[in-house]
Automatic annotation (TrEMBL):
GO terms for molecular function: transaminase activity. It comes from Streptomyces polygonati. Pfam families: Aminotran_4. The keyword Transferase applies. This is Aminotransferase class IV.
Length: 264
């Protein structure tokens, strides 16, 4: 697997076939995406808990974390790498209560950390069943493409009253003095968000959750977005400039960079 090559895809430890892939096209399922370096992942426990919880909600039974780890290790070995961008999809080959789930693992070349700062374009969209990382992100993809065509780096999902929830493929946090503010809205609690919550708490830095609206953005001292690729400062949302020199922004980035990597 070289940069630019296609992904290696396995289903339950076997090379994916067209027939085995067919049920994935039904669009009902969930996934997690992670960056692997040296066979390690930041926040692995959060990824495994996400997969187990969503499998229980969507399919009525849990997903053993050791099974997932073994399948990811197998796919990485098949690809001949300990680094990569790994996506784990969970779906049901045969629909119906009690039917077992299948686990698809796709391994692609590693993705570099984001280079910021980012400018965000707000869009009138919130993901359905936002607490799940479910498949079928057409709305997100549509708005990201629109944002990028206008010179922005990410789309910012908002409700009818301008309440900010999350980025299309990121979570967003705001800086208010010495405090990190997380939006209170329907959103996916991403793994990077959870890692940062843990690291901020361990460092004794205050954080809170409250509604944040587009009209409030100008009153904050900074903002950042993050996903499994890393965190990056936000320099503007629509036509509003956001400061990027808040000391806490650099601290957030350093805390994430120092967060431990867990062996798969």
């Amino acid at each position: 697997m070289t940069p630019g090559s296609g992904p290696l895809i396995e289903i339950d430890g076997e090379a994916a076939t067209v027939a085995a892939m067919a049920p994935v096209l039904g669009g009902y399922g969930h996934f997690t995406a992670m960056q692997v370096r040296g066979g390690r992942v930041r926040g692995l426990g959060f990824h495994l808990a996400r997969l187990d919880g969503a499998t229980r909600e969507l399919f009525g039974g849990g997903l053993d974390g050791e099974r997932v780890r073994a399948l990811v290790r197998h796919a990485l070995a098949s690809a001949g790498h300990t680094d990569g961008s790994v996506r784990v999809n969970v779906f049901q080959p045969v629909e119906g209560p009690g039917s077992p789930v299948a686990v698809l693992v796709a391994v692609r070349p590693p993705v570099p950390e984001p280079v910021g700062p980012y400018r965000l374009k707000s869009v009138p969209y919130q993901r359905p069943v936002a607490h799940l990382k479910h498949v079928g992100g057409f709305g997100q993809g549509y708005y990201v493409r629109q944002a990028e065509a206008e010179g922005f780096q990410e789309a910012l999902l908002t409700g009818p009253d301008g309440t900010i929830s999350e980025g299309a493929v990121t979570n967003i946090g705001f800086i208010a003095g010495d405090t990190v503010v997380w939006p209170e809205a329907p959103l996916l609690r991403g793994v990077t968000l959870q890692v940062l919550e843990r690291e901020l708490a361990a460092a004794g830095l205050p954080q809170t959750t409250r509604p944040v609206r587009l009209a409030d953005v100008g009153g904050y001292d900074g903002a950042f977005v993050g996903n499994s690729r890393g965190t990056v400062a936000v320099s503007g949302i629509d036509a509003t400039t956001v400061p990027i020199d808040a000391q806490l922004l650099a601290r957030v980035e350093s805390l994430y960079e120092a967060a431990p990597w867990d062996p798969i």
